[in-house]
Amino acid sequence: MNAPIIDPLQGDFPEVIEEYLEHGVMKCIAFNRRGTLLAAGCSDGSCVIWDFETRGIAKELRDKDCSAAITSVCWSKYGHRILVSAADKSLTLWDVVSGEQITRIVLQQTPLQARLHPGSSLPSVCLACPLSSAPMIVDLSTGSTTALPVTVPDMGNGVAPHSRNKFPDGTPFTLTAACFNKNGDLVYVGNSKGEILIIDHKNVKVLAMIPISGGAVIKNIVFSRNGQYLLANSNDRIIRIYENLLPLKDGLGALGDLSKTIEEEDTVEKIKAVGSKCLVLFREFQDLITKMHWKAPCFSGDGEWVIAASASKGEHKIYIWDRAGHLVKILEGPKEAVFDLAWHPVHPIIVSVSLTGLVYIWAKDYTENWSAFAPDFKELEENEEYVEREDEFDLMPETEKVKETDTNEDDEVDIVTVEKDPFSDSDMSQEELCFLPAIPCPDVPEQQDKCVGSSSKLVDSNHSGSPFSEENGQNGQATNNASSPLEGTFMCFKCILNISESFRSSLRGIICQLDKSVKFLVLIF
To answer: What is the signed CA dihedral for 54, 59, 61, 67, rounded to 10 degrees?
Structure first.
C-alpha cells in the first residue's frame, strides 16, 4: 500500500467485501506475522495455507489420522511452524516449508484454542484451552501437560496444586480463556468468576489478579500486537480494554519487584494490590440498544481499532471502534453467522469466516485521487475553454525553469536499504518465512481414467486398420480398462501417432496437386 496516495480524511478501516476464498468448509483462520500467508482450518481436519498476495493455495497440510474439524490454528514467531488443534482432542505441530508433521499429541479434553510460545522462533511449548478443564501448558517435545490455576488459592505461597479441578465452593470448571503476553514469560487467564489472573507458567504460581466489575464470565482474552493493551470479552456483553503497565520485556521480573514493595499479610489482598498496578481499565465497548453478545474480538495491526462480530446466528455484522471508544463503522455481510475474525497485521483488511465455510475479505473502498499522482493535475467538473500561454511551446518556458539547488547529482542513491514498516515488530529477522514456493498439483486419478478410456475408444473406432488398432483388438478389454498412469500415457501416445499419420497422408495428397516447384515439401513429411 502506498501511504502518500491515501486520502488522510478517510478512515483507515475496511468498508466493503473485496472477494471471498472458497476451499471446503473453513472454520478458523490466522495470519502469519507479516500478513503474507493465511492459514485456515477446515471441517475435514485439513489446514490450508493461502498466499494472501495472489489469493491462491500455497500448501495443504493433511493428517491421515485426523478427520475431525479444526478448532484453532496458530503460527510460530517466524512462520516456520503451525500448531493445529482439532475436535478429536489432538494437537499437531507442522513444518510449513516441507509440509511434514513434527509431532502429534492427544489430550484428555478437546482443545478449543491453542497458542504457541511467542518468544521462541522454534517453540516446543504451547498454551491449550480445553473444553471443560483448566488451561494447560503442553510440552510438544515430551507430551507432558501442566494445568494452570484458574482461581486465587487460599495458600500462603500462592502455588496451586496440580490436581485441582474444582473451585473452592465445589463448582466444576467452565470454559476459560487464556493467552501469553508478548514476550511469553507470563500467562493471562480469565475465569468464570470475572477475574483476570497473571500466572508464572513455569512455576505454576498466581502473581496478580484483576477483578472485573460485575463478575461476569470472561470468554476471550487477546493482547494487541505491540503488547500494550489487553482485550477481555465478558458474558455481560461488554468488551473491556486494559492498558498494560508492565514492561514488554522481563515482565516476570518486574512483577517480582512490584510484589516486594507491597506489604499485605493476606495473600488474596496482596495479589489484588499487585494486579491493580499491572492492568488499568482503559475503555469499554458495548451496544446499549441491542445488548448483543460479541464473538471473536481482536485489535487491528497497529492497535488503533477494535473489532468484534455479532454473536447472532442469522447475521454477519462486524463492529469497528476506535481506541477512544467511538463506534465508527458497522460492516454488514451475507445472512450467515460469523465463526472467526482476523485483522491483517499490516493493511486495513479484515478476514471473516462464515457459517457456510467461506472466508470473506473486507477491504477499503478507495476513491480515485488523481491529483496525488500529479500535483499540477486539476479535476474539472465541466468543460472549460483553454487559453494557451505565450511561452507554452518554448524550449525553455519561463514558468518551468528549474531552480538551482544544492543537491549533488554525483551522490550515490541507496537502493539496497529497506525502510522499516511502521506496523511491523521491532525484532526483524532474516530467517522469517513470508512466502511459500508454488508447487503444481498432480492430476486427479479420475481425469486420467477418462483420458485413457476416450483415447482407446478413438483408436478402436477411427483407426481400426492401423497396426496399433490391431494390437488394441487383440488386447481387448484390458486396453479399455487401463488404469495405471503408464498404460494411460502409452495409449495417449498411440492416439497421437495415429492422428498425425492420417494427417500426413491427407497433406501429401494436397501437396501432390500443387505446382512442381513446391513438391520438395513432401520430403519434410
So the answer is: 60
Question: Could you give the CA distance from residue 251 to residue 467 in angstroms, rounded to a whole number?
Answer: 82
β-pair type (70-75, 46-51): unpaired
For the chain, give the mean pLDDT: 80
Distance CA(254)–CA(247), nearest Å, equals: 7
Identify the pLDDT of residue 401: 56
CA 519/CA 185 separation, integer angstroms: 86
Q: Measured between alpha carbons, how far is residue 134 from residues 198, 201, 449 in Å?
A: 14, 13, 52
Q: What is the tens place of the pLDDT at every residue in 408-425?
A: 777 788 888 876 655 455
Give the Cα separation of 93 and 102 in Å (integer). Answer: 5
Q: Where are the beta strands (DSSP E) in 121-269?
A: 125-130, 136-139, 145-147, 177-180, 187-190, 195-200, 205-211, 218-223, 229-234, 239-244
Scored b (16 or more CB within 10 A) or e, 346-381 reads bbbbbbbbbbebbbbbbbbeeeeeeeeeeeeeeeee
Number of helical H runs and strand E runs in the chain:
6, 28
Nearest to 251 by CA among 201, 316, 196, 315: 201
8-state DSSP, 48: E
Q: Which amino acid is at 122?
A: L
Would you say how long the chain is, in residues? 525
Measured over the CA atoms of residue 198, residue 204, residue 207 and residue 212, the dihedral's sign is: positive
- C-beta atoms surrounding 49 within 10 Å: 23
Query: Which grid coordinates belong to 28?
Result: 478458523
Residue 244 φ/ψ, nearest 5 degrees: -85, 115
pLDDT (tens digit, 9 = 90+) per residue, 10-20?
Answer: 568 899 999 99
Q: Helix %, strand %, coil % for the chain, to 5?
A: 20, 30, 50
- Distance linking the first and last C-alpha atoms of the chain: 57
Per the structure block, which three cell numbers stand in for 219?
470468554
Give φ, ψ of 461 to 5 degrees.
-85, -40
* Residue type, position 481, single letter: N
One DSSP character per residue, 246-257 reads S-SSSHHHHHHH
Residue 518: which region, alpha, beta or left (left: phi > 0; alpha: psi -120 to 50)?
alpha
